[in-house]
Design brief:
By secondary structure, the chain is an alpha+beta fold. It is 37% helix and 32% strand. The chain has 1 helix and 3 strands, in the order βββα. It has a 3-stranded antiparallel β-sheet with strand order 1-2-3, with helices on one face. A hairpin with a 2-residue loop joins strand 2 and strand 3. The longest helix is centred in the last third of the chain and has 30 residues.
């Protein structure tokens, strides 16, 4: 949706099984990581949350922010070259 030159993308979803001794439950133990590779650049994002859906949502927001900044830099660079 945001980029059309993606070479590869890796997404890793995991759960840390450590339990908080006080609350008897895991806190921020669902982990989502992603690497997006484009020609000449690589984006990486990492997110933790109490449930996997939230960590994925945070991860996608972080990646979107990085991609938007990259696209803005590309547009500024192209306008300076003209």
């Amino acid at each position: 949706k945001h980029l059309d030159q993606v070479n590869s993308m890796q997404v890793k979803l995991s759960k840390d099984h450590q339990i908080d001794k006080r609350s008897k439950r895991g806190s921020s133990n669902h982990i989502a990581e992603a690497i997006v590779r484009l020609p000449g650049i690589e984006f990486f994002a990492h997110a933790n949350a109490d449930d996997m859906y939230t960590s994925i949502k945070i991860l996608t927001e972080k990646l979107k922010k990085q991609i938007d900044r990259y696209r803005e830099m590309q547009m500024n660079h192209q306008s300076l070259a003209i």
